Amino acid sequence: MSTNLKLKGNWNELKGKLKAKYGELTDDDLAYAEGQEDQLIGRLQKKTGAAKEDLEKMLFAEEDRR
C-alpha cells in the first residue's frame, strides 16, 4: 500500500482533523517526515490512547478523505 503518498497528499487536512478529535495534540506531536509513519502513529497512540488500527484507518483510509 502506498501510505506515504496518501498521507503526504492531505497532511494539512488530516492534522486539522486530528487536532479537532484530540484537542491535546500539539504541532510537535503531529510532526511528520516521509517514511516515518510508524513513529507518528506511536506518538499519537501515546498521547491519545487511541488504538493503532483506529489511527491507521484515520490516516490512511481512502474513504475518510472525502
From TrEMBL:
<dbReference type="Pfam" id="PF05532">
    <property type="entry name" value="CsbD"/>
</dbReference>
<feature type="domain" description="CsbD-like">
    <location>
        <begin position="6"/>
        <end position="57"/>
    </location>
</feature>
<comment type="similarity">
    <text>Belongs to the UPF0337 (CsbD) family.</text>
</comment>
<dbReference type="InterPro" id="IPR008462">
    <property type="entry name" value="CsbD"/>
</dbReference>
<dbReference type="InterPro" id="IPR050423">
    <property type="entry name" value="UPF0337_stress_rsp"/>
</dbReference>
<dbReference type="InterPro" id="IPR026042">
    <property type="entry name" value="YjbJ"/>
</dbReference>
<protein>
    <submittedName>
        <fullName>Uncharacterized conserved protein YjbJ, UPF0337 family</fullName>
    </submittedName>
</protein>
<dbReference type="InterPro" id="IPR036629">
    <property type="entry name" value="YjbJ_sf"/>
</dbReference>
